[in-house]
Every structure is written in structure tokens, then in C-alpha cells.
Amino acid sequence: MKHLLMLLGILTLVFSLSACTFGVDSDSEENITVYTDRHYDTDRDLYDTFEEETGIKVNILSDDADRLINKLENEGEDTPADILVLADAGRLHRAKERDILQSVQSDTLNANIPENYRDVDSEWFGLTRRARVMVYHPDRVDESELSTYEALAGDEWEGRVVTRSSTNIYNQSLIASLIAINGEDETKSFIEGLVSNFARKPSGNDRDQAKAVMKGTGDVAILNTYYMGRMAYSSDEYERDVAETLEVYFPNQETTGTHVNVSGAGVAKHTDNQEGAVRFIEFLSSTQAQESYASANYEYPINPDVSAHELLQGWGTFTTQDLDLSELGVHSETAAIIMDESGWE
Ligand code: FE2
User: Fold this and answer.
1) First-to-final CA distance of the chain
2) Distance in angstroms (rounded) separating the CA atoms of residues 215 and 5
3) pLDDT single digits (tens) 35-82
4) What's the 29 CA to ligand 1 centre distance in angstroms?
5) Distance, CA 13 to ligand 1 centroid (Å)?
6) Ligand 1 centre distance from Cα of residue 297 (Å)
7) 5 C-alpha vs ligand 1 centroid, how far in Å?
8) How far, in Å, from the CA of 189 to the mean position of ligand 1?
9) Partner of 82 at 20 to 30 A CA spacing, among 51, 61, 319, 325?
């Protein structure tokens, strides 16, 4: 009797373990696993809506873009990932070059996403846009003093510019875009001039740059547009004050355009749920999801049928760099090297 009970116990344990394994199996038709470097709570809300509407459960693994790319590459055919979501076109291009994504043919994606915001081989699709703009304190800077990114290297800006570190992906892509447009030599001279104008050693995130301008550490900062939106509607009173006080400036309007980058997604080469993965990206490009990106995270929608948040609309329209976004990936390594060589910490 004792042995029979023990046997029953073991059988129950084995059964529940295997049931449990099937339950969390990321290769199941009812599940998709997303590797993402986007760090916004609003994404989870959006993924929850997708789960409710489709019954497909979304597992998320968050990490830094380069680590996720390496992970996918190392996992090869055994990867649990079905989708890679990255907040940078340069890194999406790098993922394509590492052969960890697959080409996707979808009329829905082609209809929802303008051609210049998706990969030429349909291996990744842009989902949201952000501009990397200047933010200044109107008490210390007159708008007429501002013009281009390049002009921030001028002597008149000595000790007045604040930025975050050169290891940051947003800055690397900005510099990569300038290499694509102006060439490596001209960009290196620009960075040397810019670094000599830094008000302090680079530190903090994008929001901290705006706060440093607010405090008077510097007069002008470079940051992504959605951070001004997030601060304007923040639960923190000081952040709301920062967003209300500082002004947004779109650089290079008379020259080469403001730097715009995208967040985007691609289907993992070795996904076991290609159908679910495509459905997920299609959902993110839909009017419904695009409205959520615009209203909850203050990003510019990629789908032309959806309007930007009213705060962003208030800043007006602007000219963007006329650049194939894969160029950001082509030049990102050079960008990181010359930023480092020029003393941008
Ligand atoms: Fe960000």
C-alpha cells in the first residue's frame, strides 16, 4: 500500500511537471515570445490588449539591444524568441545583418507602414517614430541662436551644452546619421567641437538632460521628443514644470532635416509561430495600437491614418533627414569609435 501511494505520488508529480512545461512552452501556437529593448510600461498594456483579442499569450524578455541580438544569434534554432522589438533602426539593421530575422510578406504591414520605414527586404518594420531634438531654456537662449546640430560645435556654445553618454544608442544613431550625411571627417570635427562645449561630463538619461537645462547646468540639451511628452503629463510636478518651461527646437530645418529614428519589429528567423508573430506585428501597426503609442507614449505614429498627440501637433510639422534608416546601422560602429576618440564619455 505504501509503495502504491508512493508510485501514485510520483506519477502525479511527473504529470503536473509535464503539464506545467506544456503550459509555459513558448513554442506553443497560443504563445509568442518577444525580445524587446523598449523600456515603456505602455508596451505591456498594448500586449495585454493583443492577448485579450487573440488569445495568444505574449511572453516578454527585456534587455539591451546588443545583448538581445547576441542572445538570438547564440540561441540559433533553439531560440524561444518569435519577435525582436528594438527602439533603433540601426540595431534592427544589425539584427538583419546577423541573419536572425526573416522576410515577411504582409499586405497589412505594407499598407500600414510607409515604405521608407520598413526594411527593403521586409525583415523589419518600423512601428513608432521619434525625433532627436534640441530643448532649451527660453530665459537663456533665444530661438534665433539655434540652427543645426553642427552649429552646437561653435564657440558661442562653450560650457552650455548637456548630453548623455556616447554609449547611448540614441546618440550613436544621431552621429551615424551625420556620418551618412556629412562624412566621417566632418563629423569628427563636429564632435570635437561639441565635446569642448559640454557644460558637464555626460550623465543620466534623456530626461536628466532636460532637468540639467532647467537647473541651469546647461542651456541646451539633445533629447527624444517623447520624453517631453512623458514629462508634460508626468505624475511628478517638477517634471511637468520642466516640460512647461523648456522649449522644443527642431534642428537642421534649413539644411539636412531633423534626425528621426524608429522603434520596430522583425520576426525571428527560427520562430515556431510565424503566423502568431506576423499577427502581433500587424496588430502593432493597426490604427488601434498606433493610437495607443501616440497617446500613451507620445511617439509619432508610423501609420499615416493616425495623428500625433496634440502636444506634438502643437510643435508643428518639421522636415526630417532624407536617409535610408539602414544607414544608421551601417555607420553606428564608426560613430561609437569617433565619439570615444573625441572624448565624448
Ligand atoms: Fe527611450
Assistant:
1) 72
2) 71
3) 999 988 899 999 999 999 999 999 999 999 999 999 999 999 999 999
4) 32
5) 45
6) 10
7) 56
8) 27
9) 325
